[in-house]
Every structure is written in C-alpha cells, then in structure tokens.
Design a protein that fits this description.
The complex is a heterodimer. In chain A, about 75% of the residues lie in helices and about 5% in strands. By secondary structure, chain A is mainly α. In chain B, β7 and β8 (about 395) form a beta hairpin. Chain B folds into two domains: about 1-175 and about 405-459, no CATH class; about 180-400, no CATH class. In chain B, the strands form four sheets. In chain B, strands 1-2 form a two-stranded antiparallel sheet. Chain B has a two-stranded antiparallel sheet with strand order 3-6. Chain B starts with 6 loop residues before the first helix and ends with a helix. Chain B has helices spanning about 5-45, 50-85, 85-120, 125-155, 175, 180-210, 215-250, 250-260, 290-300, 320-350, 355-365, 370-380, 405-435, 455-459, and strands at about 160, 170, 265, 270-275, 280-290, 305, 385-390, 395. Classes of the chains: A mainly alpha, B mainly alpha.
Amino acid sequence: MFSFASFLDLPIVWFGLIATAVLLYVLLDGFDLGVGILFPFAPSDECRDRMMNSVAPFWDGNETWLVLGGGGLFAAFPLAYAVLMPALYIPVIIMLLGLIFRGVAFEFRFKATGKSRRVWDYSFHFGSLVATFMQGMFLGGLVQGVQVEGRSFAGGPFDWLTGFSVMTGFALVCGYGLLGATWVVMKTDGTTQEWARKCANYLLIYVAFFMALVSLIMPFINADIKKLWFTSPTFFMLLPVPLLTIAMFITIWRDLHKKREYRPFILSAGVFLMGYIGLAVSLWPHVVPFKITIWQAAAVAESQSLLLVGTVLLLPVILGYVGYSYYIFRGKASHEPIY
Amino acid sequence: MVENLDPVLLARIQFTFTVAFHIIFPAFTIGLASWLAVVEWRWLKTGNTVYQEVYRMWVKIFAVTFGMGVVSGVVMSFQFGTNWSVFSDKVGNIFGPLLGFEVLTAFFLEASFLGIMLFGWNRVSPKMHFASTIIVAVGTLLSAFWILAANSWMQTPQGFRLGEHGLLYPTNWFQVIFTPSFPYRFMHMVTAAYLTTAFVVGGIGAYYLWRNLHVSHARVMFGMAMIMAIFVAPLQLVLGDLHGLNTLEHQPAKVSAIEGIWETEHGAALRLFGWPDQEEETTKYAVEIPKLSSLILTHSLDGEVKGLKEWPREDRPPVVWVFWSFRIMVGMGVLMILTGVMAAILYWRKKLFDTRWFHYWCMALTPAGFIAVISGWCVTEIGRQPYVAYGVIRTAESVSPVPGPHIALSLVAFIVTYLFIFGAGSYYILRLIAKGPASEEEAYGAHGVDKPPLVSDIA
C-alpha cells in the first residue's frame, strides 16, 4: 500500500483534477448541448443536418467527461457524492433522461425518414434543453447550500428548487446556446453561419446580463463570499476576473461583427472559464456548500494515491487522442452526405 | 398507499431495471467490436469486398447499439449515488477507484475512436481505420475488466478493513482488484458476450439464407457464427462449471439456492425443476435425478451439499428467482451447444448453408444470448442478497435517504423512456437488417462522410 499523503495535499490535487474534468465537460458538452438548444430555430433542414454533422463525431466523447466528473467525485470525494446525489435526486434523474433523448437522436435521426425525423429533431432539442436547464438548476441549488446531518443529506426533496436556481437554469441555457452558436459559426459557412452569428449576438447580451445578475446576488447568499470579493487584499487579487470577463464580452461582440470565425468560440469558452473560476473561488474549500470541505469528504489517502497514478499516466494520453479526433474532423462540416 | 412504498425494494427494482437494460448493449457490443475487427482484417487481407460490405452493414448496427449503451451507461454512473448513497459512502474508498479506472482506461478510448470508426473512412488511412476498430474492441474489454472487478469485489470482498463510521478502507489493491471470483466471472462474461453476438449475427445470416438474399454476405455471417457455436459454446459450459465451483467455495448459500436444496444432504439429487417455497422451506413438485447434484458440485456421488437451512432465514437469498434464472440460463446454454453440434454435423455433410430447418432454428435462437446473459446476472446478483457487499454490508442498510414515491416516480420515468428508446432502436436496427449489406444508402452516414474507399484504391 502506497500513499503520497506525506508530500502532497491529495484533496487539493483531486479538487483541481475534478474541477478540470467538470470544466472540460461544461465546455465540450456545452457546445453540443448548445447546438441542440438552437436546433429547431435553424432556417432549414439542410442547416440542421449540417449542425448535427458538426457535433456527431464528438458528442459521446464529450459526454464521457460527465462520467469522469461523476465517477471522479465518487472515487476521490465519496462523501460528497453520497450527499449531493440524493440532495439533487430529481434534477439529476431528469437530466439523465434528457441526455438519453438527445443522445439517441444522433443515431436515430439519420435513420428516420419522413415525419418520424421530426420526432428525433425535437427529441434532440428538448433533451438538450432539459438537460442544460437541470444542470443550471443544480448549480444554483448548490450555491445556495445543502442541508447535511452526520454523513447524509438531511434536507427536503425540493430544496434545490428556488427562484435563484430557476434563474441559473435559464442562465446556463443561454450560456450553452452561446457556445453552440459560436461553434456553428466556426464549423459551417453560408446561411447556417449567418444565422448562427445572429443567434450568437443575441445570446451574448443575455449571457452578459445573467452573469452580472448572478455576480450581484452571490455576495448576499453567504457572508464569506461577500468578504472574499469586497475586502482587500482578495478584492484586488480577484479584480482581473471580472475585468477579463468584460474585455472578452467586448471582443466577442466586435469579432462577430467583423465576421471572425474562430475567436468567438474560443473567447466564449474563456467567458465560461472566468465564471467557473469565480464560482470555484467563492465556494472554496467546500465540496458540499457550505457544510463539507474537500478534506472532510476526501477518500482515504491510499485510494486517492492509486487513482492519481492512473490519472497522471492516462490523462495526457486521453487528451492526446481526444485532440487527435478533433484534428481528424477539423474544418467545415458539410451540408449532406457526399457520394 | 404511496407512503408505504418500500424504498429499498423500489431502489432495487430501479437498479435491476436500469442495469439489466444497460447490459444488453455492452453484451452485444463487446462481441460485435471484436468480430468487426476480424471482418475488417479479412477484408484488408483478402481484398474481398464482401467482407467490407458486411462490415459496413454491421458497423451501423454497432453505432445504434453503442449509442444506446452510452446513454444507459451514463445513468449507471449516477445510480450508485442517487439510490445507494449510504453504500457509496461506505465503500467509496474501494469501489470508487475501480470505476474511475474504467472511465480513464476504457470510456474515452471507445468514445474517441468510435468517431473515427464510424465517420473516419476517408479521413484516415485504412490501416488507421483498422487500428481504430481494434482499439474500440480493446476498450470494450477493458471496460468489462474494471466493471467485473468491481462487481466481483461485491461478491467476494477482500483486501479491506472496517474503520470508523462503518467505512471500508483498502489494505491491499491487488486483493481488491483480483478477488477470488473475478477471473471466473470475467472469463464467463466475456465468453457470454461473444456468444451473444455470434447468435445474433448467425440468426440474421440464417434469415438471409432462408430468404435467399445477399447469399455471399450471409455465408460469412452464418459461417463465422457457427464456428463460435461449435467451439465456444461448449467452452462456456466448462467455464460456467468452474465459476459455479468457485461460487460454492465462497458463496455456498447462492449455490444451495440454485440447487433448491434446503436440508444438507450426502449424495444430493439434482432438482431439474420444481417450485422452491421460501416460507415452507421446501422445493415443491421437484423432478429429481438422484445423486447428480453431489456429482456436479463435489465430483463425487456421495459428496455433501449444504442446504439452505444452514443459514438463518434472514441470510438467505430469494430462492425462486435464483433457482429459475439459473435454469433459464443453462437452458439457453444447452440450446447453443446443441446448435454447435448440429452445425458441425451439417458442415461435415456439406449441407450447412442450405438446410432450411436449421436456418429457421438459428433464427429462433437470435435472442438466446441476451436471455442467457440477463438470467445469468439475475442468478449472481439476486443470489448475493441479502447483502450488497457479500457478508459485509446488507442491502437494506445501503439505500439513499430518498422518499419511496420519488424512487417510484423516477422508476416509472425510466421504464417509459427506455421502452420508447428501445422500441425505436430495435425498429431502426430491423430496418438496417431489412436493407441488407449490399444496398447503397445514406447512413454512414448521412453524417456528411464519404463512403469507404475501394480496396483497389488502397493498394
């Protein structure tokens, strides 16, 4: 039995790794969920085919980051997994059902003919929409804190359902929509691209509005968060986060008008990164806000060490071949099958 | 009435339903991925386009099945937390890393290279494409390795100690991963997956032969499937026997339930059929073969077989379920072996590809593997009750603090969704089968990808 606990603060390492996995999930599945959210509004069936083609080779790899986030949480912070899953029981189940409906649509839609294709168009759209909304809601529910007694969840089954969490649900729908729209701008051209650019413009305004709103509300939820963001020296240390976010919003806006194709997507991901950093810093060091810290929830050092060896060896390889598959399917997605 | 719903039973039904639904797809894709690798290898080796067309037909079916496997698999990774949070908390130190390794070693591998396998024909070289098929096949086996290691640990837990709050702490990783039942379970399951695929492919091949369609393709499918039936089905009997003996050593109560034996006996009879009654502690209407049970389990006519009464009532598994699931599984196995024997005879008489009744027989056995796999899992999982980690943690003490009606509602939602998805998926698979291998149609599909290159373009 080996353990790295003597020279590494393992819970911090694992917090970093899982936070990275969740961030990658949000960015990667974010754009393909976003494509699903925008799907029925596209101007033609040809555009829809093209949007779907642009994400088809990637979606299940993207979703695997969610499994890694869930599995990683179970492995590294089992107590947090055991408390959060019952606390978020209903939204988690609804999210999973949404993911099922959208996931199978990738295969079924192209096999369906005539009217039944519409069924899978809407299965893709509503599945993506519902899954996103639920993810936004459990983000909101989480930030507001979770009731814990002993080693288990002690709140009611609808604790997560509040005005704030409904708002964060809408916020995430707009956020993923923005990622999706800028992805489509990058991966297509012609009418599809024009339409996606217009969508991105509108969504950008909504995302900015919601981010400002959440940032204003957060300090009132918890006194520690208020102290963190509004007293020196942390105020000055964290100042770059909002400033960079504002700079990114302005640049995306100008890029969209200058018809740049790649940078809006990358900067939208940047906006997500900033929001994510803001959240992580606010909740630190809790993994179940504001009851259980990462050290309390951590699995025993031997377990965290074993999985760390695997992760350090395998994560670079995984990133390598995920990158390879994105490289293979680089360039614009086509309208229709070429024969 | 709703308030009285038992959360433990509901959570068990939900887990059973979601995992039984899920296992259908991996059981099929594990075998199919390996078989597709063989077919693609034959194509590259011989240049015979029949292999390529067979590959193209089945890779579409693979894609539909794999998609359903992915979405139902994501559900599984959350089931432990949503419905079995106390179990997750107690065993997280041990169980978590095993599942973590499954994701790290297998899921990303499969997901990334599946994209290339399906849509990469004209974007990578044929060799790279072949490599992708092999990588996906290896990924499915790695995934089976870790998930069966985790399951086997629940069956025969070792390499841990009990600590504060009733939590389990690992003491030896090698013992945790390689528990006594693991090698047997792994071999038995992988072989089962191969046979499942073989009987599906064989059944479809038989259908084409029977209808006199796509004959050259059908001969490839049917012929390869029959090779599996001839050689692998009897092998599975041996592996199953070894697995059973291993269970007898580590989980004797499960074997007693399989046998439906209540009193400890010397020279115990094999109860072929009957109705085990948990209350009255007897197996009613039993049809017996004298001494056979002792012979199978102890390899001696007068060996001792323990009866269920050796264990207190609260420590016994639900006998009827275990007893009958086992008989269904073995029944399927016998039919498969019989198929292999008949195939060998027909092949020897040079009538394998044009014996109509045998084609009909193979068509009827298309779902045999799925039935065997699901009933086999019922034997081992229901036979593990009333424990979730055998002898260590009871199922009743593992459930999440979620109210019964919520579990019931989510269970209904899963059932409705899965039936709808499964119905649609089966329908599209049947349509792909109806279209057959040679037909030129969109599907590669229709994801904006060119059709695969001709072998003459490659050389």
